[in-house]
TrEMBL record:
Species assigned in the record: Flagellimonas chongwuensis
CDD domains: cupin_pirin_N
Protein name from the UniProt record: Pirin family protein
InterPro entries per the UniProt record, alphabetical: Pirin (IPR012093), Pirin_C_dom (IPR008778), Pirin_N_dom (IPR003829), RmlC-like_jellyroll (IPR014710), RmlC_Cupin_sf (IPR011051)
Superkingdom of the source species: Bacteria
Amino acid sequence: MKNPVIQTFPLSSPWQTLDPFLFSVYHLDHFPKGNGDMGPDESLLKGRSLGSDFNPSAKWRMYHGQTIPGFPFHPHCGFETITIVNKGFCDHSDSLGAAGRFGKGDVQWMTAGRGVQHSEMFPLLKDDEENTLELFQIWLNLPKVGKFVDPHFKMLWNEDIPMIEEENAKIKVVAGTYKNVNPIDPAPDSWAANPDNEVAVWNIHVDSDSEYTLPKANSPEVNRVLYFYDGDEIFIGGQKINPNFGIVLNPTQDVNIKIGSKTAHFMILQGKPIDEPVAKYGPFVMNTQEEIQKVMEDYRLTQFGGWPWPHPDNVHDKDRGRFALYPDGKLVEK
């Protein structure tokens, strides 16, 4: 059988993606104990470039946070964010009035559409032990017909997300049908909402010293990338691949993966390409530069509805559990 590996590439930050995806980033931070105010109980006076703390060799980063790590309010337009928090917590606030605290495997799916502002902060809730954060954020493009849809906020709670247990593997089905298991419905205007587009986001964990077979896609048009982000060496089609590599796969073949001496952790991003021009400027994604200029002007004039929260790096009460407050006032607590 022909080797299913089309290409391999080292993972940088952000990860290289293929259409219909725009961007993906993996955060693994071993934050220290909290200081009682949801910040780190360590000095930030030395060795930190606060406001732009992205040192890849550091044990943990503040990102754009000044006192609490995370990303204070910023705009998005023309695409979707899928945020998966396997460890730790994320506090969300946005210009729609929506808010939430999610973690422990929860996923937030947000359609930016015609424009939204949001903040994503990582409160350090534990003061007696480390606060590990493991988070993926994936940007999924919107087609031209969906660039200006109304913004949409949705929570996929870990308890509801299908987790398939096979002989040597666990597969978390965030988006896209895996074998005969369907995911929670994605946001309604998403490219993933049409099953013909075969959008898949699967977080896969395979036992050490074992084998796993990734089932083929239905269509040869699908772009399929396997991100090997943690583990020991693996073998596909006789080819040795080290961790921290992306693997572009032939979608028409089942892929047998031989696992090395450590549990292997993968993320699959798959989907039919939108195949439209992409114009990007920071957090704005359109089809033309003229549209980018129009969106930037709209943001200057409207601030995408403004910021209804008391702080740009808004966080929720420390003792608050997981919850979602929707723009219509509906409250869900976990």
